[in-house]
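Students often ask why we bother encoding 3D structure as a string. The short answer is that it lets us treat folding as translation between two languages. Here is a chain of 184 residues written in the first language.
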Amino acid sequence: MYKTILLFCCLALLGACSGLKLGGLEDEDALEEVAIAQSVSSHALLACVDNMESIGRKEFDTKFKLAEAELRRGREVDKLRFICLSLNAEADYEQFKHGTRVLEQYIEEHPNTGKDLQGFRILVNRLDHAIENKWSSWKTLLNDKKALKAKIKSLKARVEELQQQIEQLKDIEEILESREIGQP
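And here it is in the second language, the structure alphabet:
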């Protein structure tokens, strides 16, 4: 697992470096600083998501409240921690959406972000789209369920009505039979 993450980071670093050279940066020191910062942010996010995967609801709530308070300070590490926690399975949809907005803001503030962080944003946007589709499907199923319940209620009422009519017909039949027996 660690070899995979290390390989991913190395590839991201190389990709960021080659992309930046094409962008016209001539200073090698500036190039290294930007490439390292980009790789660290994506690496930090992925490592945080992995580390926070198994936390429980109470621990998540505590960490998220703290991250929310620290987010106001505007430090990059606080933004990355907040984004990480918003991607946790314990996060509700509003927390997730807030995290995606912070991620978008982070990328806007760092226009030289590498392809690795851009790819991460694409994955987050796909996850958001999948969540919206799931909820849309769920809402459709709920509406279908309500319609079916109404139809069942209507059919039950119709069955009761038909049973009453059958009972009335049986009563009429008994009356007619008793008249036939009573007549000479």
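Translate back mentally: Helices lie at 2-22, 28-51, 57-71, 76-86, 93-109, 115-182. Keep this in mind for the problem set.
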